Structures are given as structure tokens and as C-alpha cells.
């Protein structure tokens, strides 16, 4: 009888566990129903179903039994996770893999764990990051390109679908504390305002805490910074404050609070600093350290050779790896540069190197804080160097202002750039370096970020440590991997299942392959488990299949964003074939020896492209920036504001470029006069402002910090109510179909007229206008100016308006795009930004 009772109790207990969503194999601590009980979940359904009440309820509480649902925790032994991904850094950047830039933190992780020399990205930043946090290919989660280039196709709309939950959401619902620091480039540009929606912000994607910036780049001295979904403004940085240190401080503070509040709760931290994406903004301390090392005095070709030799000595590349000749047809050899160009280029790269070293140091502070808490032993640290190859978007000459590149200026003369030499890397620049250095930092590979068919664009490296599990200290792993493999790895090592449903939505399969098997020394040389992987970015594509790589020949350098796009990216290509089993650096094209292999792999690429929503292929670059997309201003031509408002991002604000517009302000000037900002959008490196200076109305355009056309009333406004207006007539375009002449409708001339109480007080014609974007990390502000000022010679932010603003009206006479126009934008037509006129601008205000 006793046996029957015990068996009945066991059956009843199992049934009870099933009813509360707890499988019998799951782990329970404490007595179920008590306040301190915890349990794992099977994880098939997220969030876990509410358990049935396990107590008893009578008419009065004294005869009833209270019962608490167990707190959900991860499986016993599940590690803390620190997932680090840096920005725009190629294979040859860190010292851990032969680079000359000191990265002792990455060295520490590698020496205490493993080096990986065969992990891949998508060739562009936010696509890689979307793949990283979902475990799916970038087109599968809507990020075929960055959000600022998004188009209305599933693979390109920059919206992570609800059937592909992030690792943050999965770990959160399984009991982890989840957080995200630094760059978020996975919120659609058209959903980044303070009114949301917030489902595509980090906090809506499963990360409980977010501290960072939403766009693709940020001024590290004056970032457009958020905590969760609230803009941090007024900006409270101390003199010399820098976001690289600021986010390390915030991460350490967060982890300390977590440790002191709930020391047993495991954490998942995504740590994504802006370094080394442009602008390159290190502190002077690090610039001085790197400059004193004289690492780059011999030029970029010698740097490349030195990195290559270092890599072979370290054993992170095979000894028989081939280094291709310097691409003289793409980048001018060092010995052909003028002394002034050499001086400038060395300054550019020292700032970049200081930024990389500084960033690695601050990452080290976070890791040291974890160790000081006694938690490093059971913390899985994944340190991925770069989300793509090194960026060449500064062009062959570099630039003091990356915003200029995105407006068609990629060859600013050296003598013009030298005007910023002494302030390079400070808040006065939005700087990038010569692409010659970028080629060297991708050693032993060729090409850059954006080039998805070359390993220089897609081959990253990575260091991983987990002292409690990884014992092969300093080992090298050479198995093929992709960033989509990180999510299944984290699920495997934590003992957490991929969910079948999330919020009632059936989940698509994880597309990556766990690399947890490589943690064991016995598997150091095991075959790669990730066998096949496609790559595609802006019409350049490749396919990896069990050691073979089929790739398109590079037909566009990254700085050539405004040329004619390939009309048939699938077929209008020169195909190359490489055997990466014997050719580590992708240097020996053997397509002519294996025509059948080329044909078969192309068919396999097509199959993979169909499977993962890569079609329709689109080779356009800049054209997609100005293509139509959702926006809270879409369909509106008039905007009215009656109160100050700041922080509206560029993707959600009225767009004035390539249009006629009228801005009218109804204001009241107090006795004694007034000053301050009425309306501004953009900042020091590109934008416009409408303001009062000593009671005089002023309208100013900052054309990528090269020209500053200004309209100023000659007389101060008298006390009382006034209407001031700025009217701009854009030449050749107005309401109706945009008459494209090979896209030369962009950046054309126009005439601006400033009026006070209906009277014209200033008229000026702008020979050229900004064609593509304002400064992306600045916002549309009314009543004051956040972050940097458009004209720092007149005022300093916040420059609060001291007049009363009754009403501000903005009317835009925007050209209407026909479907034919849109097709031209997205396909074959070249963008001739009015003959690239801004090339001819001279620096300084006008």
C-alpha cells in the first residue's frame, strides 16, 4: 500500500509540474509554492504560461494555503554572457591577430581562452548586428542593408519580424538580466522618435536596459544618447567626457547594481561600442600614446607587410598564406604621395589607432569589474573584432567630415583637409581615414566593409573565454563560422531551448549552427559544422560551401556610392572561385579550371537567396537613401508647432532637401530684445538653423562644414509680435513628377528669401544644396539646439529661444516620385549630384 501511495504521489507531482509549465526534467529549488522557490522552464512557449495555483482557497484565509509561482531561473550552471562586438574593424586591426594596435584586453581573453580566425559577418554594420542577435541571416530579419537604405521588401525593410525573437528576449524570459550598451542600429530610422513605437528598440527586443545611441554612428563627444527610450538631455558630460568611457562606466554601474541587488541572477550584456566606426573620436591621452609609438611612419604598404608577418609568427594564419600585390589601380602607393598628404594620412591613422586602443582599454575595465565581483570564472566572454571589414568610406584621401561622404564628396583635397589637422579627432571633426590604411587593416585579405564577395569585407576574428568550461588556454580554432552561430551557441551552453512560440507567434527556425563543440580541446581540429553560407550586400554576393567560395568580382569601391548601379546583379557579374582549404586569403582565382563547380555553386546561391529572402537583388547604394520609405511625415506637406520640442530624429522629421519650402515663425519679442533658436535640424557637420541673434532674424545652411550661406536681417526686431519667414525656391523642382536627368535633380541650386512682417530683408541664391542627408546623429529641434550647433561662430547650444513662440509653420513643396522615378532610384540610374558640385566648395562660412 505504501508503494502505491508513493507512486501515486509521484504521478500527481509530475502532473502538477506539467500544469504549471514545468517539465519533470527541469530544475526546482526550494519548496514549490514558497516565496523563495525557483524553477527552470522548458522554454517552448515564451513567456512561460502562468502556472496553476497550487495552494488551497477556503472561505477564510486562516484555513487557506498561500502559494507563490516559482521565480524563473536559467538552468544550473548557465553562464553569464558578455557579448562584445566592435565596429568597422578588419582582421588586421587588433594585436591579438597580428595587428600593430595594442589590444591587451582582447589578448587577455584569447590567452585565457580561444582565438577564432574564421568567423564571418555580412559586410555591413546593422545587417551583421541583426544576424548576431537573432541567429538568422540578415535578409531573413529584414536587414539586407542598413535601415537608412531600407526598401519595401521583406529582406530589406529593416524590421525584425515577430517570428524571429532575439537572444535577448529568449534569455530574458528564461530568467536572465538582459542589457545592451552602445550602438543600436537595429531600430528602423522611421521608428526612432520619442513617440515610438518602441517594439523595435532594444527594450522592445528583449533587453531590459539600454544605454547608447540608436543610429549607425555617433559623435563620441556629444552623442545623441538614450537611456532605455528617453533621450539624455540636457547633455551632462563633463569637459573631456567621451562616450567610450561613458558607456563603460554605465555598464559597470549596471552590473554593480545587479550584483548587489540579486547576486545570483545571471546576466547577458550586449556591449557594442561605436569604435571604430567614423567619426574616430579618442581622447588626447590615447592619441599621445599612439603617436609616440610611430607605428605608421613608413606608410600603409609597409604596415600591411608588417601585420602579415606578425600574423604568421602568431600562427593565426597559415604559413603558406599569399599576400596579394598592392592595388595601385585603386589606391595610390605611399611613395607617390606628397609630403603633405603623408603627414595628413599619418595623423588620420594615428587617431584611428588611438580610438581602437582606447576602446579596448575601456572594454577591459568592464571585464575587470566582472572579475572583481568574482563572476568572471562562469562568464562566457565573446569578443568579436568588427561587424564588417575596415571601412573605406573616407575614400582614398580620408575626410574631416563623414557627412560629406554621404553627400557625394569623397575626394576632399589634402590642402583643404589640412585646415583641420590640429583638431583631427576632436569635437571639431567627424573624421575618417584614407582607404589605404583600411586596406592594410584587412590584411591578409583584400577590399573592405561593404564588399560582401571579398574576405576583407566579411572575415572577422574573435576571442572567447569561459574559464569554468574552456581549458585549452590560448588555443586556435579555424572552423568556418558566421555571426548567426552565436545565438545557437548561447542557447546550447546555457541549456535553454529555442522557443517554439513567442507571444503566441510560431517561431521560424534558428538558421545558425552552434560552435560550442569547439570549446573542447578534443575538437580543436574537428570539421566545421557550419557547411554552407551565402553573402550579399548591395549587389555583390558570394557563396561558401564546405571550403569552396564562389564570389563576384568587385565592381564598386565603397566610396563609389553615386555611380550607375549594376542593372542585373545576379547575372551581370564576373564570377570567381576559390578553394579556401588551400587558399586562406582568397588570392588564387581558379574559376577557369572548374566551370562546372562555378555553375553548380551559382545555382546553390540562388537556392539560398530564395530561401532567405535575398531577392530582389539591388545594387544601388546612395539611391536607396533618398528612396521613399515609411515616415511619420509621409504624405504631409504642412507641419505646425506651438511649443518647444527637441530630439526628433532625422528619419522622423520633415525632409527639406531637394525641395522648395517655407518656414514661418509667429513670435513675440520681449522688452530688451531676444535671442535663441527657433528651428534647427542637423549640427556642426551638416544642417540648417533659423534663429535670433541680438534680435535679428538669421537663417543659415551648414553645407557639410565647407560653406555656410547665411541670410540675416539688417535690423533688430522691435519688442512685440512679429512674423518672420524663410522661403526657399528649389530650381527646377516643385509639385509634380520629378524630372530626372540621370538623377541630377539632387543637390541643385535655389534661392532663399528672408522676410520680416511680409517685407523682404535678405535674398541669396545657393549655387548648390545638400543632396542626400543632414548629420544623422543630430535631431530636429524647436526652441533650442541639442548637441552641436549648426553655426558655432554665432552661438553655443542649447541657445534657448527667449522670445515667445506662438506658432511655427513649415510647408514643403516636395516633388512627387512616380513609380518610374522610384525604379530609377533603386536600379540602374546614376546619381549625379549636380556634377558633385560641393567638391568645389571652399571651407569656412559665407
Automatic annotation (TrEMBL):
One Pfam family it belongs to: Sulfatase
UniProt KW Signal keyword: yes
Annotated signal sequence range: 1-25
Sulfatase N-terminal domain: residues covered: 79-496
An example molecular function term from Gene Ontology annotations: metal ion binding
InterPro entries recorded: Alkaline_phosphatase_core_sf, Sulfatase, Sulfatase_CS, Sulfatase_N
Family of the protein in this entry: Belongs to the sulfatase family.
Protein name: Sulfatase-like hydrolase/transferase
Amino acid at each position: 500500500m505504501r508503494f502505491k501511495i508513493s507512486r501515486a504521489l509521484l504521478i500527481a507531482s509530475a502532473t502538477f509540474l506539467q500544469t504549471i509549465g514545468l517539465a519533470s526534467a527541469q530544475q526546482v529549488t526550494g519548496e514549490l509554492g514558497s516565496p523563495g522557490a525557483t524553477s527552470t522552464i522548458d522554454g517552448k512557449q515564451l513567456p512561460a504560461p502562468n502556472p496553476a495555483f497550487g495552494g488551497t482557497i477556503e472561505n477564510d484565509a486562516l484555513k487557506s494555503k498561500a502559494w507563490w509561482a516559482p521565480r524563473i531561473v536559467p538552468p544550473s550552471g548557465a553562464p553569464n554572457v558578455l557579448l562584445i562586438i566592435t565596429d568597422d574593424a578588419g582582421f588586421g586591426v587588433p594585436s591579438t591577430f597580428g595587428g600593430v594596435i595594442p589590444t591587451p584586453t582582447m589578448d587577455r581573453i584569447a590567452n585565457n581562452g580561444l582565438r577564432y580566425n574564421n568567423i564571418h559577418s555580412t559586410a555591413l554594420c546593422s545587417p551583421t548586428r541583426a544576424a548576431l542577435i537573432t541567429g538568422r541571416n540578415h535578409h531573413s530579419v529584414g536587414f539586407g542593408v542598413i535601415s537608412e537604405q531600407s526598401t519595401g521588401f521583406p529582406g530589406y525593410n529593416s524590421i525584425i519580424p515577430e517570428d524571429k525573437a532575439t537572444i535577448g528576449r529568449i534569455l530574458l524570459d528564461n530568467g536572465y538580466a538582459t542589457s545592451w550598451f552602445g550602438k543600436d542600429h537595429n531600430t528602423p530610422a522611421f521608428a526612432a522618435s520619442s513617440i515610438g513605437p518602441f517594439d523595435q528598440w532594444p527594450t522592445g527586443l528583449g533587453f531590459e536596459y539600454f544605454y547608447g545611441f540608436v543610429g549607425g554612428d555617433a559623435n563620441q563627444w556629444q552623442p545623441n544618447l538614450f537611456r532605455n527610450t528617453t533621450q539624455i538631455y540636457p547633455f551632462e558630460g563633463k569637459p573631456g567626457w567621451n562616450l567610450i568611457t561613458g558607456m563603460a562606466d554605465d555598464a559597470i554601474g549596471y552590473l554593480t547594481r545587479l550584483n548587489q541587488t540579486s547576486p545570483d541572477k545571471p546576466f547577458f550584456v550586449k556591449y557594442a561600442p561605436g569604435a571604430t566606426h567614423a567619426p574616430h573620436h579618442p581622447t588626447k591621452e590615447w592619441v599621445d600614446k599612439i603617436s609616440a609609438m610611430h607605428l605608421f611612419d613608413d606608410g600603409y604598404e609597409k604596415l600591411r607587410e608588417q601585420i602579415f608577418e606578425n600574423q604568421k609568427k602568431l600562427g593565426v594564419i597559415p604559413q603558406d598564406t599569399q599576400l596579394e600585390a598592392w592595388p595601385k589601380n585603386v589606391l595610390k602607393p605611399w611613395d607617390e604621395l606628397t609630403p603633405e598628404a603623408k603627414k595628413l594620412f599619418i595623423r588620420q591613422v594615428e587617431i584611428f589607432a588611438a580610438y581602437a586602443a582606447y576602446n579596448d582599454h575601456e572594454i577591459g575595465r568592464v571585464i575587470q569589474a566582472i572579475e572583481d565581483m568574482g563572476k568572471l570564472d562562469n562568464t562566457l566572454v565573446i569578443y568579436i573584432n568588427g561587424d564588417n571589414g575596415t571601412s573605406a568610406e573616407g575614400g582614398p584621401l580620408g575626410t574631416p567630415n563623414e557627412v560629406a561622404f554621404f553627400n557625394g564628396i569623397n575626394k576632399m583635397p589634402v590642402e583643404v583637409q589640412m585646415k583641420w589637422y590640429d583638431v583631427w579627432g576632436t569635437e571639431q571633426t567627424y573624421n575618417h581615414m584614407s582607404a589605404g590604411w583600411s586596406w592594410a587593416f584587412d590584411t591578409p585579405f583584400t577590399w573592405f566593409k561593404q564588399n560582401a564577395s571579398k574576405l576583407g569585407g566579411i572575415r572577422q576574428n574573435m576571442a572567447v573565454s569561459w574559464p569554468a568550461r574552456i581549458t585549452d588556454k590560448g588555443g586556435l580554432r579555424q572552423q568556418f563560422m558566421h555571426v548567426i552561430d552565436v545565438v545557437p551557441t548561447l542557447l546550447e551552453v546555457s541549456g535553454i531551448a529555442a522557443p517554439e512560440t513567442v507571444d503566441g507567434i510560431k517561431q521560424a527556425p534558428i538558421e545558425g549552427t552552434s560552435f560550442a563543440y569547439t570549446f573542447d580541446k578534443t575538437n580543436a581540429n574537428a570539421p566545421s559544422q557550419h557547411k554552407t553560407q551565402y553573402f550579399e550586400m548591395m549587389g555583390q554576393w558570394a557563396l561558401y560551401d564546405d571550403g569552396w567560395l564562389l564570389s563576384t568580382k568587385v565592381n564598386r569601391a565603397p566610396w563609389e556610392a553615386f555611380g550607375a548601379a549594376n542593372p542585373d546583379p545576379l547575372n551581370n557579374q564576373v564570377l570567381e572561385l576559390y578553394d579556401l582549404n588551400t587558399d586562406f586569403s582568397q588570392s588564387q582565382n581558379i574559376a577557369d579550371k572548374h566551370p562546372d563547380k562555378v555553375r553548380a555553386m551559382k545555382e546553390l546561391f540562388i537556392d539560398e537567396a530564395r530561401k532567405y529572402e535575398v531577392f530582389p537583388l539591388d545594387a544601388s547604394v546612395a539611391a536607396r537613401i533618398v528612396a521613399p520609405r515609411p515616415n511619420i511625415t509621409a504624405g504631409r506637406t504642412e507641419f505646425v508647432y506651438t511649443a518647444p520640442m527637441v530630439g526628433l530624429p532625422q528619419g522622423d522629421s520633415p525632409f527639406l532637401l531637394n525641395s522648395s519650402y517655407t518656414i514661418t515663425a509667429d513670435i513675440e519679442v520681449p522688452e530688451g530684445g531676444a535671442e535663441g533658436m527657433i528651428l534647427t535640424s542637423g549640427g556642426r557637420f551638416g544642417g540648417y538653423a533659423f534663429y535670433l541673434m541680438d534680435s535679428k532674424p538669421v537663417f543659415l545652411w551648414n553645407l557639410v562644414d565647407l560653406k555656410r550661406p547665411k541670410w540675416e536681417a539688417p535690423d533688430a526686431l522691435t519688442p512685440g509680435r512679429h512674423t518672420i519667414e524663410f522661403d526657399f525656391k528649389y530650381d527646377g523642382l516643385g509639385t509634380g513628377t520629378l524630372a530626372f536627368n540621370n538623377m541630377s535633380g539632387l543637390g541643385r541650386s535655389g534661392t532663399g528669401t528672408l522676410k520680416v512682417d511680409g517685407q523682404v530683408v535678405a535674398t541669396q541664391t545657393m549655387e548648390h544644396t545638400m543632396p542626400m542627408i543632414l548629420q544623422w546623429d543630430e535631431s530636429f529641434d524647436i526652441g533650442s539646439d541639442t548637441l552641436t550647433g549648426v553655426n558655432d561662430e554665432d552661438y553655443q547650444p542649447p541657445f534657448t529661444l527667449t522670445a515667445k513662440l506662438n506658432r511655427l509653420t513649415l510647408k514643403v513643396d516636395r516633388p512627387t516620385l512616380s513609380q518610374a522615378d522610384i525604379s530609377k532610384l533603386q536600379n540602374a540610374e546614376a546619381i549625379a549630384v549636380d556634377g558633385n558640385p560641393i567638391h568645389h566648395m571652399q571651407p569656412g562660412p559665407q
